[in-house]
Amino acid sequence: KIILKQTLNSVTGKSEWEPENLEEHDYFTDIARSSYADMLHDTERNKLYYEAIKLAVEETHRQGKVAKVLDIGTGSGLLSMMAATAGAEVITAIEVNIVKRKGNKRIVLVTKKNGFGQIKVINKHSTEVELGKDLAEKANILITELFDTELIGEGALSAYHHAHQNLMEENCIAVPHKATTFIQLVESETMLKWNQLLPIKIGKNVEIQPNKELVDGHGVPSVHDIQLSQFPVDKFKAVSDPTAVFQFEWGSKELTDDLRSNMVEMKAISSGTAQVVLSWWDLQMDQEGGVILSTAPKWCHPTPHNMQWRDHWIQSVYFLPTQISYNKDDIIRLKAFHDDYSLWFDNGEPDPTDERPQCDYPPRMIWSRPRLGMLNDNYRNSIFVKAIESLNIEEGRAICLSDFSLLPLVVAQCHPRLGVVALEKSTIAQRGLVELKRSNNIDNLEVVRYDPEDISKSLESGDISLFVAEPFFATSYLPWHDLYFWYARSQLELGDHCKVMPCKAHLCLAAVEFKDLWKIRAPVGEVEGFDISDMDRLIEEALEKKEIREAEAHALWEYPCTLVTPPCRVMCFDFTSCVPEKPIISNGSVDIAPTKHNAEMCHGVVLWMEYQLTPNPNHCISTGLQPASINGDFTPHTTSPPIWTMHHRQAVFFHKQPFELSNVKTMDYNLTFLPQSGEINMKYSGAL
């Protein structure tokens, strides 16, 4: 019996029916988008875990005990196999996340193939494991890899607390033994644009000012995690040195998941304003402190010229609710907090009533950190303003469509004689726009909620002079998903006099060699002498599923790469006409560029969109390479390393088998845009 469920296609805006088999979908999606390969390619992590596990087993044997290992969050089973090789007699591996059914069996196969049939695998959350039922006796060595960028965001504290209280012997050994979180205060106007809305200049004397709630309130509650080593060093100034703030004794029964606070004192190393808190952590893998793993960014890493690249543990960015200026050598006092999942920071003196800050203004929560950066991009805003001002529209209605965009305010200010209608799906976004309209005294703007399947139902009859969008939609995953604007435009009967902005979009691509990102999809084979090829096949099985194999989204400003073909436009979407019924097909080839940057491999293809706002070639914005091309001329981008926008994610298609540039002269592409689904099928190959 097949059960169907109704879903909304976020690209076409149409309802669709699909089999309700969420477990199967989640299984393949989670596997394919997991960090298994990234973690298994982390040679430093693997080496240091192995070293510390051997020390733990040796110490247990020195005490005359049988080594009984509990491995929580075993993943591929690698750490359990390390424990077996080190001589542990009893090993229990626990995993709950993406190893349901097939994955759980695959871990058993991996461990048995390597000759470790004594490893028992339990497919439960560790807090559900019962002594005497799932676990015969308490363990004396606790091995875990439960950490995320924020250290405790995957529930490490509750898992450790439960294990110590229920599953571990007294005075057990933990690997890792201890963690220390570090912070550094910085001043950065660029980072600050990820946290609060700034005024938008429209003319010499006209600005759109954010209302007070958009400036002063707390925004998105989740941490902003990025590859800090890739953030431009000239875009921030250190106000303090790195300072330890919390320690977590993983082997202690006293470890709890209760809220904890700490008053941190540090000396200002320069005069400046403390605006942003950068954070990372170190793991002390062994009891003696001789095996240390650091996730510090490059400028303060213990071995900056020999750093392990990883994407499963990066760095965290937090924003202070109050900005305070300091002179050099002043003493800075900062309050630090953590609960069972996250950290936060505040200025001022400690207060026993301090609680995790909550957003008290819902419209602000709609904007992600990159989206706020996009709205605060002066260059991007100036292009929109110039394009809107250039439109020769004297009267009529302007319809604006995007997700909580400020574009309707700009259109209303630039063309005060137009009646502007902002279409919004979200009632929270409606509230935000209405309050921005009031605070800026804009009278010619109406905010209307709409039905994505038929926006005409939400509009009164009458001529439309302008249909405009950024376009930006929060549900978009890949760059072309914002083409919903095109489908919405096709629902309306627009007269020949109606202007559409953007007037067209171009899909662009370039083949690249990644410095490191390729590792997240590369087969592992062996790790520290253990055969992990069965996990490789598990990941490949998931990647073969159509929705994953086609492309995935990455913010490439965080991942250095080299262009190995010239960038080019490969497909055009004409918004002045309706979405066609037949597919749009684009076949062609691009030359492999000379390896002037010492590139040797082609790992995949990057795709992004360029939006031509008006026929003026200067009115163009890019969701990929910066700046946008001029009528498809990418000449400046072929002579220097690529610069990617920090506001958008680009689509990356990883070749199943990367190819050596010396073996090919061109890269062939075959792209098909499917109007019924809004998706793009793609194939690529290298050719002589």
From TrEMBL:
Reaction catalysed by this enzyme: L-arginyl-[protein] + S-adenosyl-L-methionine = N(omega)-methyl-L-arginyl-[protein] + S-adenosyl-L-homocysteine + H(+)
Gene Ontology annotations of biological process type: methylation
Keyword list, A-Z: Methyltransferase, Repeat, S-adenosyl-L-methionine, Transferase
Lineage: superkingdom: Eukaryota
InterPro entries: Arg_MeTrfase (IPR025799), MeTrfase_PRMT7 (IPR014644), PRMT_dom (IPR055135), SAM-dependent_MTases_sf (IPR029063)
Transmembrane segments: none
Record EC number: 2.1.1.-
Entry keyword annotation includes Transferase: yes
The keyword Isomerase is annotated on this UniProt entry: no
EC class: transferase
Protein arginine N-methyltransferase domain location: 177-345, 504-680
A GO molecular-function annotation: histone methyltransferase activity
Job description of the protein: Arginine methyltransferase that can both catalyze the formation of omega-N monomethylarginine (MMA) and symmetrical dimethylarginine (sDMA), with a preference for the formation of MMA. Specifically mediates the symmetrical dimethylation of arginine residues in the small nuclear ribonucleoproteins Sm D1 (SNRPD1) and Sm D3 (SNRPD3); such methylation being required for the assembly and biogenesis of snRNP core particles. Specifically mediates the symmetric dimethylation of histone H4 'Arg-3' to form H4R3me2s.
UniProt similarity note: Belongs to the class I-like SAM-binding methyltransferase superfamily. Protein arginine N-methyltransferase family. PRMT7 subfamily.
PANTHER family referenced in this protein's UniProt entry, alphabetically: PROTEIN ARGININE N-METHYLTRANSFERASE, PROTEIN ARGININE N-METHYLTRANSFERASE 7
Identification of the protein by name: Protein arginine N-methyltransferase
Organism encoding this protein: Ciona savignyi (Pacific transparent sea squirt)
